[in-house]
Each structure stands twice: as C-alpha cells, then as structure tokens.
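Customer escalation, tier 2.

The customer says the design service returned an amino acid string that "doesn't look like it belongs to this structure." They asked us to rerun it and document both sides in this ticket. The original structure tokens are below, unchanged.
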C-alpha cells in the first residue's frame, strides 16, 4: 500500500496531502532499481568467485580423475622402464656377448632429451609444468631406448641367422653312416704321411679313409652346393661340396653318385655309395675337408654321435695306420 505524505497548513489549520512531482518519482524509482541491480551484481560476482558453478564442479571432478589417471600412467611408465632395463642387461651381457658383440654404450641408450625450447610452453604452468616436462623427458628416453633395443635385436637376429647357416653348413659328421666304432672299423687311414697302397712310397694323405662294404650310403657332412660330381683316374667317382664360409669336402672312390653338379644338399643327405673306383685297393670312402683351399685333418670335423671315448679311439685309429687305401 502506497504511503501518502501530508503537511500541516497553519493558515487553514488542517493537514494537506503532499503531491509528489513526476521527477521525484522517477529519481526514486531509478534509485531503487540501481540499488537492486548493484546488489545483484555484487552477489553474482561473489558467488562466481567463491562458489563453483555446476560446470566448474564437473570440471573439477574431471581434473581429480585425470590426476589419479596421470599418476597411474607415470607408475606404469616406471614399470616399463624397469622391464626395459632388464631387457637391456640381457641384450648387453647375454645375447650380444653370444655373438662376440660389444655391449651398447650407456650414452647411446640414454640419447638426448630434446632442446630446451621444446618444453618452454609448459614452464608457464607453475603447478603442473614441471611434472609435465619431467614426464615428457622420461617418455622420450623410453621411446629412444626402445628404438635402440629394436635395432640391437635386428643386429643380433642377423648374426644368429648367419650363425645358424654356418652351423648347418660346417662339415661336422662322418661321411659314412654305418662307420660306427661299435660296428668295428677294421681299417681306417688318417690324415698325414702314409705309405701309398699302390706306389708303396711315403706320401701325404690329405684325408681319412672310411672302410665300409660296397654300396654303403655316403652322406653330405654339411649343407652346401655340389660343385663337382664326376669321375677321374685317381679319385674315380667323386663329389666335391662347397659349404660356404671357406669349407669344401671331397668324397672319393664311390661306386655310385646319387646327386648332380649344382645340386643343393643338406647335412645327412645321401649323395652316393661306397666303392673302390679310381686308384684304390678296397671299398672305402676317401674323405677330405678343405678350409680356405687347404686340406685339414677331417678328424676334427667328425663329431657326430660319438662319445668322448669313441672320438678318442677314432683319433687314435686314424693316427696309427701306416698305409692308406689310396
Ligand atoms: Zn685316402
């Protein structure tokens, strides 16, 4: 209810209503409106400053989740660093050393951590900047070490493949399968000076003669390529296999040749049979091993299925005989 104002008229001796001017009404109205607006504005600023809005509340709770997740990722990264550290140790002191490779230098593992400018964007954030920069550096180191590790494994793999091929190619078994000591080798002529069976003179014998009945299987002693499968006066039917890595083997006096020049053969493959072709006095396989073009004692390359004792006996036998078969 609107309040009315009166004044006392002394002349008329009565109260008269005071009529408010339009201007005064306007001034009063705007005063009230501006007071209300100012109060509302101050209240809004206060609430906005000290009490979070629903949107801010939601953002704050998202930040909380992110902080927890961030810490979890940092912990995970630490575990990965430890695992990689173990792999690096095995890489350096087991795998690389197996192939005679030097361990990778620590400085190579660590690598650079990037230029200063790369991180300056984060330096402005006083609260989280340092954490972000440190995490980025760790992540970069981890990534770098993984790349180095991957390259190192490539190198090791290449060496292993080469080694695998080498092991498969190197002559390492006897050429005659049935020539087991247990089955009785009654005659075996070794590498060295021997009296030639036909010429009866002391002559260098460049191989080992494995005696066996005619027709006994002869096997390739390592993987390789047949570079000769032919017949001549001295060796009779004979085969030459090139094993790579500087190794060649010769199998002579065969009764039959089962492969052709140019064939690829694997260790243990049947290549021919024992005979007495060429200059020979009895069925046997004359076996030679050449390393870089020079004949070496094949006894060092006959390691298959023999116990230490059997191998010693084989070496003794090969050394005792004074006359070769060819
Ligand atoms: Zn011989």
């Amino acid at each position: 209810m609107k309040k009315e104002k009166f004044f006392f008229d002394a002349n008329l001796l009565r109260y008269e209503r005071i009529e408010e001017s339009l201007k005064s009404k306007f001034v009063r109205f705007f005063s009230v409106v501006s007071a209300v607006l100012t109060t509302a504005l101050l209240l809004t600023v206060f609430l906005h400053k000290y009490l979070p809005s629903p949107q801010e509340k939601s953002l704050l709770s998202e930040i909380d989740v992110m902080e927890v997740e961030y810490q979890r990722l940092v912990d995970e990264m630490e575990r990965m660093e430890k695992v990689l550290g173990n792999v690096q140790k095995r890489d350096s002191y087991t795998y690389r050393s197996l192939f005679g490779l030097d361990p990778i230098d620590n400085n190579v593992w660590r690598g650079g951590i990037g230029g200063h400018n790369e991180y300056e964007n984060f330096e402005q954030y006083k609260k989280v900047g340092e954490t972000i920069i440190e995490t980025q550096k760790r992540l970069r180191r981890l990534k770098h070490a993984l790349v180095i590790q991957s390259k190192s494994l490539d190198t090791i793999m290449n060496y292993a493949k080469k080694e695998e091929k080498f092991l498969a190619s190197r002559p390492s078994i006897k050429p005659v399968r049935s020539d087991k000591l247990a089955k009785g080798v009654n005659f075996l002529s070794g590498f060295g000076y021997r009296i030639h069976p036909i010429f009866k003179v002391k002559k260098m014998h460049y191989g080992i003669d494995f005696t066996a009945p005619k027709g006994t299987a002869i096997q390739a002693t390592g993987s390789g390529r047949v570079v000769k499968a032919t017949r001549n006066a001295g060796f009779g039917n004979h085969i030459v296999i090139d094993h790579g890595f500087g190794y060649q083997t010769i199998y002579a006096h065969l009764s039959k040749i089962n492969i052709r020049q140019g064939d690829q053969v694997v260790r243990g493959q049947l290549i021919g049979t024992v005979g007495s072709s060429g200059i020979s006095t009895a069925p046997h396989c004359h076996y030679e091993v050449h390393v870089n073009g020079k004949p070496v004692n094949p006894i060092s390359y006959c390691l298959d299925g023999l116990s230490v004792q059997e191998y010693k006996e084989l070496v003794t036998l090969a050394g005792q005989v004074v006359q070769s078969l060819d």
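Tier 2 assessment: The sequence is consistent with the input. The domain at 178-318 is CATH 2.70.70.10 (Glucose Permease (Domain IIA)). Residues 189, 205, 207, 209, 286, 324-326 surround zinc ion (CB under 6 Å). Sent an explanation to the customer and offered a walkthrough call.
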